[in-house]
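REQUEST ID: PR-0412
SUBMITTED BY: lab tech R.K.
PRIORITY: routine
TASK: structure prediction, single protein chain
INPUT:
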Amino acid sequence: MERRFYMRLRVLHIEDDADVGKVVARLLSRSYLDVYLQRAATLREGVDLLYQHRWDAVLLDLTLPDSVGSTTFNALYQVAPQLPIIVLTGETDIEVRAATIALGAQDCLDKVEITTNLLTRTLRFAVERQRTILELQEIIRELELSKKKLQELITQVDFSEKSSIKH
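STATUS: complete
OUTPUT:
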């Protein structure tokens, strides 16, 4: 028996095609995740919503009325690098999809092939991966600060030992 993992998510879907938006909403309504989904039809509208609300993930179409291709991803990533971004595309070229992942997308799914299970699993794993990444980045910052403090302490001890030897 598959174990279900309950998670409440706020997901921003940046997609200009209302029909695709309805399909994604229907798929997520069947998910075991509790998803609040809001759609933005343009990159500008999506960026505005990112500033107005807290989000757990973004579903992004790369072909929008006001932005196309990697420019779309880069613009969104610059605004919200802390959020997992999952690209939903009609692009079938594996190289283009791999390039999107290399830019920082958590995943790149074919709009035609998405199912409730695939979308649910992808969202869940992307959010968990991003949380882990953010926690590791915080640990690294703390370690770097500790290293700096330790180096300062070693310098002080070394200096005081040299001073006491001369006297």
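NOTES: Residues 116-166 form the longest helix (51 residues).
REVIEWED BY: pending
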